[in-house]
From TrEMBL:
Organism: Methylorubrum rhodinum
Name of the protein: Antitoxin component of MazEF toxin-antitoxin module
InterPro entries for the chain: Antitox_PemI-like, SpoVT-AbrB_dom, SpoVT-AbrB_sf
Domain SpoVT-AbrB: 6-51
Record GO terms (molecular function): DNA binding; toxin sequestering activity
PANTHER family in alphabetical order: ANTITOXIN CHPS-RELATED (PTHR40516:SF1)
Amino acid sequence: MIVQFSKWGNSLALRIPAHAMRDIGATEGMKADLIVEDGRLVVVPIVEKRRRNLEDLLARVTEDNLHDAIFEGPEVGSEEW
C-alpha cells in the first residue's frame, strides 16, 4: 500500500488507513515502537496489559453472571465452612 508523507507542524506524518490499523490491532491513543531497519520504517504497536483492580472486577458482576458458591467434599486440614 502506498501512503504519502504530509507536513504536521515541524514534523512529517503518515496517515495509516483504517483497514491497516485493524489488521495490526492498533487503536487511537495506542503507543507504537518505530524501528528503522535496513532503510525501512517498521511500526510495532505496543500492547499494554491493563491492570485490573478489585473495584473494576466487582463492577462487572451482574445478576446474570452471579452464582452461588459450591463447596463439595470433606473438610481438609483446619478448614471450617
